[in-house]
Write a structure and sequence with these properties.
The protein is α/β, with parallel strands linked by helices. The chain has 2 domains: 126 residues, FAD/NAD(P)-binding domain, CATH 3.50.50; 121 residues, FAD/NAD(P)-binding domain, CATH 3.50.50.60. It contains 6 helices and 15 strands. The protein has a 5-stranded parallel β-sheet. Strands 1-2-3 form a 3-stranded antiparallel β-sheet. Strand 2 and strand 3 form a beta hairpin. The two termini are 23 Å apart.
């Protein structure tokens, strides 16, 4: 992706959250953003656009665990630098694609031990999804090597920066846990979608243009006017190349 950005001189702006999208004159849009990289004070900007592609899927906002306030400061929702985990005992919550990939990375980063846990009773083997299948194979290997422990039907009760209390079925277990990483899913930015005031949930199957001309949708999950489980397209990001091509072809045709 970095090579693509350099080759085509793409304007990529990181750590910038979209706070609103407004229709303006001549079918243009005003996209309001807010810097989120720790810069003191609010750094706001407005960008003019001829078209907007909504492609945040269901991962606009991180879901937070409901835990005692004393535990909250010891929970992170994304991985940091590899050196942070070297020699540490780490708990990863969630056995979805993000949780499995995080657990695999942590073992490779040199964590002393990784505990991968989920409140559910099933472990998705990812048949048909090459990325999940590869994570599953590595997790099985790490289990055999005793570098990783997989716990199902398990809930985090509390954490203090050195240990974690887990509810495993009807049993309470205390384990070492200097780091707890929660990969418990995301939600869509409902307010952002509502700010556009879509008249209905129409979606052109040929171009993926919505009921507002110039606004395209490439995966939005469980928000009005699209409420179907799995999002508008019902595909994972790694399987969506045909849909992306349709949107890009229409944009090139329309704007050259």
């Amino acid at each position: 992706m970095a090579r693509v950005q350099r080759t085509y001189k793409l304007n990529v702006r990181e750590h910038e959250r979209v706070t609103g999208i407004r229709r303006s004159v001549r079918a243009h849009f005003q996209v309001d953003t807010l810097r989120t990289d720790g810069v003191p004070g609010d750094v706001r900007a407005t960008t003019r656009a001829s078209a907007v592609v909504l492609a945040m899927g269901s991962s606009s906002s991180t879901k937070a665990l409901q835990l005692p306030s004393a535990s909250v400061e010891h929970i992170s929702y994304r991985l940091g630098e590899p050196r942070q985990y070297f020699g540490k005992h780490v708990v990863v919550i969630g056995v979805g694609p993000s949780g499995m990939e995080s657990a695999v990375r942590l073992v490779n980063y040199g964590a002393a031990h990784v505990t991968l846990m989920s409140h559910g009773g099933r472990f998705n083997r990812g048949r048909g999804n090459v990325y999940v299948e590869q994570s599953t194979k590595r997790i099985s290997t790490f289990e055999r090597e005793k570098r990783l422990t997989l716990l199902l039907r398990t809930t985090l009760v509390r954490a203090n920066g050195s240990h974690a209390v887990l509810q495993v079925g009807k049993t309470t277990r205390l384990i070492r846990a200097e780091v707890v990483v929660a990969c418990v899913g995301f939600t869509s930015d409902n307010d952002l979608i509502k700010s556009l005031n879509f008249p209905d949930g129409h979606l052109n199957s040929r171009t993926y243009e919505t009921s507002i001309r110039g606004v395209f949708a490439l995966g939005i999950s469980r928000v009005s006017p699209w409420n179907r489980e799995g999002g508008v397209l019902g595909t994972d990001i790694e399987d969506s190349q045909p849909e992306v091509a349709k949107v890009c072809n229409e944009l090139v045709k329309r704007f050259g």
